[in-house]
Amino acid sequence: MNGLGRRKKSRNIDADHSKVCFKPCGIRGHLLEKVIIDEDEMEAIRLADFESLYQQECADKMGISRTTFSRLVESARKKIADALLNQKAISIDKREEKDKK
Q: Total structural domains in the chain?
């Protein structure tokens, strides 16, 4: 390997999570630390927690392995908990914008 790591597999994302940001009430946005949730992590949360699907069903819908799905949803839940417990803003990062960097 040349230090670049593995290429990310294309993932199926059915919902548009672009331009979404949440913040605690009463605190100006520019004063807040921000937690970034990747679009695929948000899709994992939508499928697992909102749609109440089993992990294998979620993984199949996203076109990824169950273990990869499990890592995504665990990462997203940890970030959301951090934001809620530590009064941080949550921003959804659209994957295409990140891949262009």
A: 1
How far does Cα 21 stand from its chain's mean position? 12
Residue 57 sits in a domain whose CATH number is: 1.10.10
Among 52, 25, 49, 35, CA closest to 92: 35
> What does the pLDDT look like over 37-62, one tens digit per residue?
999 999 999 999 999 999 999 999 99
Name, in order, each residue with C-beta under 8 angstroms of 96's C-beta and a sequence gap of 6 or more.
Answer: none
Query: At 98, is the pLDDT very low, low, confident or very high (cuts 50, 70, 90)?
Result: very low
**Residue 35 structure tokens:** 């937690």
